[in-house]
Design goal:
The chain has about 375 residues and is of the alpha/beta class. The protein has two domains: about 70 residues; about 290 residues, Rossmann fold, CATH 3.40.50. It is about 45% helix and about 15% strand. It contains 13 helices and eight strands. An eight-stranded mixed beta sheet has the order 1-2-4-3-5-6-7-8, sandwiched between helices. Helix 1 runs parallel beside helix 13, helix 6 runs antiparallel to helix 9 and helix 12 runs antiparallel to helix 13.
């Protein structure tokens, strides 16, 4: 007869196995094996924008460059260790040198900044690539980073080789509907009231929009990022600047190969925003990701699709990091199955889960 604590442990193990079998969004990050000395490291440096503002940027990986355009809510050090960003950053840096930076007023860039506009976002991107002496490179834009990347590419078509746009928009929230100005006003009020407070409930409103299917760990991290990335005053200024974006007139001028990816259930930037970009950028390729999240997460099949599409678009190899994730998952499942040997039902579940993991790995190799 099992003791109460033993029954509880078995119940948790069974639930974990069922999550794997039926696709519950369990975090794979906690299952991944440490990569030891092979783990990528980043180097952080600083440059100066034309108006004297100091911009922090980071490089990681080796190979031809890929530049991630700065977007709202980043912190170079915090993101690098996070369960929300790390898998994307490592994947992009596996076959290339990844360059990314904190926009003015946020992260490690100058915080005491009064001038924060869309035009400054574009010139800050230019300051980073100039400091590195980059001649030609693809741009990866997320959210409002897409509009910034488009504006920079139009001005510097000889320098930008490809545009990769994930969850992006041509029109900020203030221009999308008659309710836009009211929505922006509500967001500003929430930021002013609770952004830097000890009460996390305000920040959780934003987290739920960005990561509706996030695990508790991912949501906690994202809420903390909101607190450490910027003050409430700067967060409100950037929110207004992003809501006011309108680059629709620039879209027909884009002559650079463009890949547009968008989550079907994105609550922060609706799918129609991605459709609008694709309809107005001649020759662009559009891919719908089966996700509800604005930031694609490690446990989602959509993330594999993202890396598949980006690798094909750039002519790169697919990042090997996803094979490591599958192997780590398989090993974890085997350990879990071993721990439930006292129950025949749990044994069967463990065997099925282990077989499913092996099949997934074989399919991966053949893909």
């Amino acid at each position: 007869m099992l003791l109460p604590q033993e029954r509880k442990a078995l119940k948790h193990k069974k639930a974990a196995l069922l999550r794997v079998l039926y696709g519950h969004p369990a975090s794979l990050r906690s299952w991944r094996q440490p990569r030891g000395s092979a783990r990528l490291e980043q180097e952080i440096r600083f440059c100066t924008a034309p108006d004297g503002v100091r911009i922090a940027y980071a490089t990681a990986g080796k190979g031809p460059p890929i530049v991630k355009v700065g977007n709202w809510l980043t912190h170079l050090e915090f993101d690098w260790k996070s369960p929300v960003w790390r898998h994307v950053l490592e994947g992009l840096a596996e076959h290339r040198q990844l360059i990314r930076y904190d926009v003015r007023g946020t992260g490690l860039s100058d915080r005491d900044v009064s001038d924060i506009t869309f035009e400054h976002f574009v010139t800050d991107l230019g300051a980073v690539v100039d400091a590195l002496g980059l001649e030609r490179f693809p741009l990866f834009g997320l959210s409002q980073g897409g509009a910034v990347g488009i504006a920079y590419a139009i001005r510097n078509p000889h320098r930008v080789s490809h545009l990769i746009l994930l969850g992006c928009f041509a029109r900020g929230a203030a221009h999308r509907s008659s309710q836009g100005p009211g929505l922006v006003a509500t967001r500003r009020a929430i930021i002013r009231q609770g952004w830097g407070s000890d009460d996390p409930s305000y920040r959780e409103l934003f987290s739920a929009q960005f990561l509706p299917d996030g695990t508790p760990e991912q949501l906690r991290w994202f809420g903390e990022l909101e607190r450490v990335s910027a003050t409430a005053e700067v967060a409100e200024i950037i929110a207004v600047a992003n809501a006011s974006v309108d680059v629709r007139a620039l879209l027909p001028q884009v002559k650079i190969p463009t890949l547009i990816l968008h989550s079907r259930g994105d609550r922060r930037v609706p799918l129609d925003c991605g459709h609008e970009l694709a309809a107005n950028i001649a020759g662009s390729r559009f891919v719908t990701l089966e996700s509800n999240n604005h930031l694609i997460l490690e446990h989602e099949p959509a993330t594999e699709v993202f890396f598949d599409e980006v690798a094909k678009f750039l002519g790169d190899e697919k990042p090997r990091s996803w094979k490591h994730t599958v192997r780590a998952t398989e090993g974890k499942l085997q350990k879990m199955a071993h721990g439930v040997e006292t129950s025949a039902t749990y044994k069967i579940l463990g065997m099925v889960a282990a077989v499913a993991s092996v099949i997934s790995f074989i399919v991966w190799l053949l893909a």
